[in-house]
Specification:
Helix content: 25-40%
Largest sheet: 5 strands, antiparallel
CATH topology of one domain: Beta-lactamase Inhibitory Protein, Chain:B, domain 1
Low-confidence stretches: none
Mean pLDDT: 81
Number of strands: 5
CATH class of one domain: Alpha Beta
Distance between the termini: 131 Å
Length: about 150
């Protein structure tokens, strides 16, 4: 009898403790962190890609590739995965193909827009009228220190 009571207590404790691990998954009002993995790539970065860019220029725009195939050096893969606060995971994939050192082809769910619209300029140019100076600044300072001749 004592042996079966211990066994029942052990099995009950095991079942209750294993349930604690799944309890915290769907607790309301609990903060869940955003999980970012891979190279951060967005459409603005991909739009900067142009045919015949060198590998060095591509690294400047997108950063180092996440995956490089050791058997084919002409393909670079960029993968960005984000899971915002317990929601479904979103993934962006980009594969770049090179001929020698030059970019020839881009594949993936982010593709460059070859003729992107020019963004409106945020700079403002103001035309200021020129001042008509009768004397230069040097002449005005020299007049202050000029000794009057007699």
């Amino acid at each position: 009898m004592l042996h079966t009571l211990r066994l029942i207590t052990f099995l009950t404790a095991t079942a209750l403790l294993s349930a604690c691990s799944t309890l915290a998954i769907d607790v309301p009002l609990v903060y869940k962190i955003d999980i970012d993995q891979g190279n951060v790539i967005d459409q603005n970065m991909v739009d900067q890609l142009r045919p015949n860019m060198t590998k060095r220029q591509v690294i400047y725009v997108l950063g180092s590739p996440l995956l490089t195939d050791p058997f084919t050096h002409n393909r670079w893969d960029y993968i960005y995965s984000v899971q915002p606060g317990g929601e479904d995971r979103l993934q962006d994939r980009l594969a770049l193909y090179f001929a020698g050192d030059n970019l020839i082809h881009v594949e993936g769910n982010l593709t460059p827009d070859l003729n992107p619209a020019t963004p409106p300029s945020t700079e403002t140019t103001i035309e200021a009228p020129k001042r008509d100076l009768k004397r230069t600044l040097y002449q005005m300072i020299a007049d202050v220190f000029r000794v009057v001749e007699r």
